[in-house]
Write a structure and sequence with these properties.
- The protein is built from 6 helices and 6 strands.
- Strands 3-2-1-4-5-6 form a 6-stranded parallel β-sheet.
- Strand 4, helix 5 and strand 5 form a beta-alpha-beta unit.
- Helix 3 packs parallel to helix 6.
Amino acid sequence: MKKTIAIDMDGVIADVEPHFLNWYEIDYGIKVARQDLMGLSEEDAFPEKGTIRKFASTPGFFLTVPVMPGAIEAVKALMADYEVYIVSAAMEFPQSLPEKLQWLKTHFSFISWKNIIFCGDKSIINTDYMIDDHIRNLDNFKGKCIMFHAFHNINYHHHIRVNNWDEVLNLLRRTNH
């Protein structure tokens, strides 16, 4: 029986950071560099409070997010040894559900609908591993946590951190051999 992995969408397989920056520049006419977000919370990432929530609530946002570099190839590779589930706390933005599903069909069509979980609280997830960028999801997870690097988690060090998909694959190869 294969071990199981829950993989988050936003910030892990969907590269939301540059997407937020692009939408911010289009909406406000101000270019913000990715490094300027480092260490800030999502709430404080932009001068206008609630910017991230505003964009995440806008139709078309999730449908147009770029794929995280290396994610497609890495997820395919992981599927050879693990039962992979895509898990998103999508209920926070219910209008995002059809867009996230379409995005997965477009970019990760090899993932079965049975392996896609949209929920509100990820503490119900019971896999062996979880790859996520949010501390609130990792801190309440009962399995092994892998924290995917993001501007909002840079000051946290109590989970194993990976910076990209190559590091995920290398970590899991070392862990299981």
